[in-house]
Amino acid sequence: MDNIVGQRSALTWAVNFAVIFMVVLWTVPTFGLLVSSFRDRDQITTSGWWKSLVSSEQNIIVRSQEPEKNVKDGDLYVLEGNIFDATSGEVRAFGVNSREPMAFLPGAVAEMAKGRTMTVAENGDYRITSVEEMTGTRGIRIFATSVTPPKFTLDNYERVLFSEGIWRSFINTFTVTIPATVIPILIAAFAAYALAWMEFPGRALLVAAIVGLLVVPLQMALIPLLRLHNSIGIGKEYLGIWLAHTGFGLPLAIYLLRNYIAGLPREIIESARVDGATDFEIFRRIILPLSFPALASFAIFQFLWVWNDLLVATVFLGNTEEQLVMTGRLRELLGSRGGDWEILAASAFVSIAVPLLVFFTMQRYLVRGLLAGSVKGG
Amino acid sequence: MDQLLYASATIVIGVFGCVAYFFCSNLALDLIFPPRGEHAGRNINIANLIRPWLFLFPALALLGLYLVYPVFNSMWLSLHDATGRNWVGLDNYKWLFNDEKFRESMRNNFLWLIVVPAASTFFGLMAATLTDRIKWGNIAKSLVFMPMAISFVGASVIWKFIYDYRGAGEEIGVLNALAKVFGVAPQAWMTLEPWNNFFLMIVLIWIQTGFAMVILSAALRGIPEETIEAAVIDGASPFQIFMKIKVPQIWGTIGVVWTTITILVLKVFDIVLAMTNGQWGTQVLANLMFDWMFRGLDYGRASTVALVIMALVTPIMVWNIRNARREMS
Asked: Residue A256 in contact with residue A373, Cβ under 8 Å?
């Protein structure tokens, strides 16, 4: 339409290029953390994730095993071992002191003080010999430049799920989310039907009030409700947070559903009324089944919102093992293990996996809901 | 696992409770005012007057308790001391306007309010326009939209990794690695005042662009074809068509996107809490309120800050209500 002949191909290229650039910019942050969550913990801290497919070269200092464990071999006392404990790698160079950490190639024999020699093989095996018997428990320092092949592992996930308490938080989050998503739907659907299809004084005022309540900041509600919940004994209970999320989610639920239900064809509802159906029957037999798309939209919204919420959970639930949700746990990890990226990355991905799954499978409903909820006065 | 059983039981009880309430209350209404017999007409009228309120009652009760009552209770609390028991008049407000952190929060919130809605709407509009012109546009849209599903805390982890600063050895944060490539010394970006505010804003812009894109893309598709065809015939360039034909027709929607993001910005708290916790000059109102509530344990001051947020939201609330009423009539 607006592609004028001749300009078209150049413009299309530019557009394609711009979109690719934007998509890369928007996905790289997530992708970087995803890649990191599968990397070996030592590699995360020594090389950027974008280098995760190339071997990383690093300078390491290790200590040999305790000198007193030396064994007599002929005239010499010998100490043997491997500089790579659990990891694997390849030695490029080694040295015996910090001034020249790369002085010798693998396999060469380095002369040390007191008639000792050291040799380090490519695979990390070292051999230290001495004329006299070696004593002491402090290992001899070995300087090496090693090349570690890329290593991907599921260890991080195993660790966060089973020893950092993420699994427990996962269950806790589910416990919060499911009832908090399901319960508002019915309550809102009834109210939405009344606001859309029943005549009564004050209806317009109520709709306006709902629109107003849509934007009331949650911060307003926290202290009064916390005091209220404490006074009736549900201050740090799941029941309290279910009720809170239900209350906070209702304005959007009623608003979305009312818009949708008000748009249903008048003839269906009126012919049902003429046939003698009561409002309750109309609601149950006609409105509910027809409103499925709107119900699904709201359910997805509420699910994502509750799953991702930190504020309400921090206020209305405790931070005990039985109650800490994923977002709360993640925030705690950020504070206490700020530099342990392998833990943070894996934890973050456990917590965003479910919303991402919901997002990609039900994007259609989400988009529809967004449009119904926001495009007004356009 | 017990917990999940408890949750499932709550769903069942909740759903059945709701259905039972609506069913029984409707039944009761029909029994008290039967739509037959000698007073059928009068009974039907009375029942029709009452029925809407039966449908509305649970929702209104919850809304009243969870959203309306707190507004008034907060006003009352803001006139009381830390414990909420002793009357202190306007002391909290006096404290607020002399508080250094509050001024910093207002300044930062102001910055957030200008930058985030503007940038999100701009990038959203760009993405909407560009993706509508290419074959793989829907995939591109999906990917730009994806951050919407990620929690603010999750996004904070993702971006903190980008801003990571080591100081010694190799930098593992993308930003510092890029800085090195361009010959700039690596920085601890989170402590770099005042720019750290913008690094936090980027996180929210990254999340909200997808939202803006989806809404604006729908609006762009709703533009009547004739207007664009007419412009093409008149020899307008694609850029002119965009600026002079398309954008003016979707002003209303741009306004909606802008205000929606504005409200979100006023409430933003997770990102600041998780990334800097308001240190290094990055405090914002919502986090200040949280600070006074949880660490200061001063309900009076926290309520006062919450009321400031409410006051800032109010103009948008009025605007929304007006729009909604105009649409209904």
From this structure: yes
